[in-house]
Known about the structure:
Order of helices and strands: HHHHHHHEEH
Strand order of the largest sheet: 1-2
Helix content: 40-55%
Distance between the termini: 41 Å
Number of domains: 2
Number of helices: 8
Amino acid sequence: MSKGDIGGYLSAHRNDENINALKTYFNTVLDWVSTVFTDVLPEMRGLEWGRLYEAYHGERYDPKKMSAAVQELAADAYVTNRKGIFEYLLGGSMDKKLLAVRVFDEKTKRVAYTKQTQAARAKGKSNCPTCAGGDNANKSRIYQLDEMDADHVKAWSKGGESAAKNCEMLCIPHNRAKGNK
Length: 181
């Protein structure tokens, strides 16, 4: 009800004789949340449920599907922002940044490394694309897997997924120098 301005709301309503409107709104939001999300997780505390209600209460959600999705994401070790699960699901599972998933799993790294290394050896170039394209002493160096980092071809901060199609192995110095480009 405060539209994010709690102080302003309280100031405007400080002389109200009752809080029935506020109680009704509060209970409406709680009812909506408990209907959409049937499982209660500690990460639900402190979320801006009023804002989420305002943004998403007009949508229809299947509580069973939402519950299954919450449980799956909550169990995923790569989801580092469990509080983001709820808004991610309410928003149609579109904004993966809410989950803070930005790491590649070991299998994806090994597959990318093997593919890049085979192609690099066939061309007589480095398996680090940045080294291979430059004029430096490492132009033809083949790095070991532990000398390389998995990199997002399209930066994670710019919408790049942590998926195999967006994974490229770079030597550690080049990956660290690349940053958010």
